[in-house]
Write a structure and sequence with these properties.
Layout lengths: L3 H5 L11 E12 L2 E12 L3 E5 L6 H7 L10 E9 L2 E2 L7 H7 E4 L10 H11 L5 H14 L3 H4 L12 H13 L5 E5 L7 H14 L4 E5 L3 H7 L2 E6 L2 E7 H6 L4 H7 L5
Parallel strand pairs: 3-8, 3-9, 6-7, 7-8
Antiparallel strand pairs: 1-2, 1-4, 4-5, 9-10
Helix pairs in contact: 4-5, 4-7, 5-7
Bound molecules: adenosine-5'-triphosphate and magnesium ion.
Magnesium ion binds next to helix 2.
Length: about 270
C-alpha cells in the first residue's frame, strides 16, 4: 500500500507543464573558454522548495542566476540550451528582462539593501513599475514587511536609512523588497549563510510559508537546512546535475556514489 508521504512526491521527470515552474533543457554555459554548466536538464516543480547543493565552484550560483538572466551582466558569458518559465523561453530576444526579474526575484548571500530608507527599499520595484499612489504603496510596503516577519521591528522607523538595521534585519528587508513584487519564483542564493541560528530559523519558516505563493529555489551549503526545508534536492558536481530527487530519498538513500560521498562529507 502506498503511504501518504509517497503519494505526495511528484515524478520530477514527467512533470506536466502545469506543474513545472522552470523547465531547463540541455543547458550548457561558458564564461569565456571555461564551461561552467554541462548539459543540465531539470524540471523545477511549482509551489515547492528545491535546493541546489554541491561543492564550492560547481556552478550552483551560475545555474540559479540563469533563471532570471543575471548572467547577462557578465562579459563573455555564452550558453546553449533552453530555460522555459510559464512555457516561454526566457532567453528569447523579445523577452522583457525587467519583467522577468520582477517575476523571478532573487536574494543573495549578503544582504544588499539600497542606500535609502527602509520604506523606499521595499517599494523601489513597485515605483519602477509605475505604482505611485501613496496609499497603495503604504499598503504594499506593510504587507511585504509583514510577510518577511520584519514589520513589528521597523514600523516606527520606516523612513530611517536601511543601513541602521542589523544583518538579519537587512536580509529580511531584502526578502520584503523581493516579495513586494509578488514574484512567482524566488531564487535564494545562500540566503542565511551570514545569519545567526535564530534568524536562520525565521527565514526558513518564511520560506516554508512562501510555498503557498511562489516557487522557491535555494542554494545552500548547509545539508541540514536542505533536508529541513526543501521538498526536492539537486546535487551538482562540476557543472553537471548528478542527482535530482525528493529530498527524503536523496538524503537517506542517494542513488549515486558521488552524492553519497558529498552528503556524508567525504569530499566537498
Ligand atoms: N563572472 C565570472 N567570470 C568567470 N568565471 C566565473 C564567473 N562567475 C563564476 N565563475 C566560475 O564559474 C564556476 C562556477 O561558479 P559558481 O559561482 O556558479 O559556483 P558555486 O557553486 O555557486 O560556488 P560557491 O558554493 O562557492 O558559491 C567557478 O569555477 C567560477 O570560478
Ligand atoms: Mg555560489
Amino acid at each position: 500500500m502506498l503511504n501518504l508521504f509517497e503519494r505526495e512526491k511528484l515524478e520530477l521527470e514527467t512533470l506536466s507543464q502545469e506543474q513545472t515552474a522552470i523547465n531547463v533543457e540541455h543547458l550548457d554555459l561558458w564564461f569565456g573558454n571555461k564551461q561552467v554548466l554541462d548539459d543540465v536538464s531539470m524540471r523545477i516543480p511549482k509551489h515547492q522548495i528545491t535546493a541546489f547543493i554541491g561543492q564550492s565552484g560547481c556552478g550552483k550560483s551560475t545555474l540559479i542566476s540563469s533563471f532570471n538572466r543575471m548572467n547577462d551582466l557578465i562579459d563573455g558569458c555564452r550558453y546553449r540550451g533552453s530555460i522555459e518559465i510559464d512555457g516561454r523561453d526566457i532567453n528569447h530576444p523579445r523577452e522583457n528582462v525587467a519583467r522577468l526579474r520582477a517575476n523571478v526575484g532573487m536574494v543573495f548571500q549578503r544582504p544588499n539593501p539600497f542606500p535609502m530608507s527602509i520604506y523606499d527599499n521595499v517599494c523601489y520595484g513597485l515605483k519602477l513599475q509605475g505604482m505611485n499612489l501613496r496609499r497603495a504603496l503604504d499598503d504594499a510596503v506593510e504587507q511585504a514587511l509583514r510577510d518577511a516577519a520584519l514589520w513589528d521591528e521597523v514600523k516606527d522607523r520606516l523612513f530611517e536609512s536601511a543601513n541602521i538595521l542589523s544583518g538579519g534585519q537587512q536580509q529580511r528587508l531584502v526578502f520584503a523588497r523581493a516579495l513586494a513584487l509578488q514574484p512567482e519564483i524566488l531564487l535564494l542564493d545562500e540566503p542565511t549563510s551570514a545569519l545567526d541560528p535564530l534568524t536562520t530559523l525565521y527565514i526558513e519558516e518564511l520560506m516554508i510559508n512562501l510555498k503557498k505563493r511562489c516557487t522557491v529555489v535555494i542554494v545552500t551549503h548547509n545539508m541540514q537546512q536542505a533536508a529541513r526545508v526543501s521538498d526536492y534536492t539537486a546535487f551538482i558536481n562540476q557543472g553537471r546535475l548528478i542527482e535530482y530527487a525528493d529530498s527524503d530519498s536523496l538524503f537517506t538513500m542517494p542513488r549515486k556514489k558521488q552524492t553519497e560521498d558529498y552528503i556524508t562529507g567525504r569530499y566537498g
